[in-house]
Amino acid sequence: MDTLRAMALFVKVAETGSFKQAAMEMNHSNSLISKDIGKLEELVGARLLQRSTRKIQLTEIGRGYLAHCQNILSSHQDAQDYVQDMQGRPKGRLKINAPMTLGITALGPAFAAFTALHPEVELDVDLNDDPVDLIAQGFDLGFRASSVGVDSNYIGKPITTFSLHLVATPSYLEAHATLHSADQLSQHNCYIYSLAMGKNQWPVNGGMTVSGNIIANNTIFLKEALLQGFGIGLLPSFVCAEEIQSGQFVELLKDEPLPTLSFYVLYPSRHYTPPKLVKFIEFMQSWFNDEQSRV
Length: 295
What we know:
It is a single chain. This protein is of the alpha/beta class. The protein folds into 3 domains: 81 residues, Orthogonal Bundle (Arc Repressor Mutant, subunit A); 104 residues, D-Maltodextrin-Binding Protein, domain 2, CATH 3.40.190.10; 88 residues, Periplasmic binding protein-like II (D-Maltodextrin-Binding Protein, domain 2), CATH 3.40.190.10. The strands form 4 sheets. The protein has a 5-stranded mixed β-sheet with strand order 4-3-5-14-6, with helices on one face. It has a 5-stranded mixed β-sheet with strand order 11-8-12-7-13. 28% of the residues are buried.
């Protein structure tokens, strides 16, 4: 039995909760995975998974063994990365977590350009707006855009900053009272981003409570709704810059200072940072520096 392969298959089943999903992601058959994990259980002398027709659960021993397997596989990957580093070529897979909207609007072209430059690096990208434990879910790195600080459990590298903009369509402004001050926001239909830290407490004039008849967890959705001309929204530049430039959106209260969103990459602290991760972070910093210089 290939013990490292069996450990990797066990970790994948534990992460996905499914033999079928693990088989698809690892490009192995269900029977091979079941056979290898069975042999792994024989090797350690304990049951690692409780199997049923509906779901798979880790046993108590399995939960502890999972953490050891993840550490062993990470160390094994570090050893391989060290050799690649000494040979001067980044290679292997990077498992990346990023917010959905950022992934759709800003990251795709950058990721494609990186893989064109380093074709032996595979980017496995998960777009998800939910809070993610990068270490527990096996991610090599994650991207975040926030007005608050970096999670102290990770190493954070700044990439760039994004501005926030208060916007509405010309048709909305023609049909409603002119907005001269932040205090008047309470008189308007404000579309709210539900995942923002303040939610309906917008960071305008020290904090203004707003209300509206649309609340959503995706800013692209809110942008499309706002383009219909029935509300006001607070959107980041990577979502609305083109619409402001084209005149589809009018920027409101431009003299009111708004906080910026810091865009940074997070990755777990490790004894050895693999070259593929170093190269990727350096590339992303350079890419967004070039983007800023073209604005």
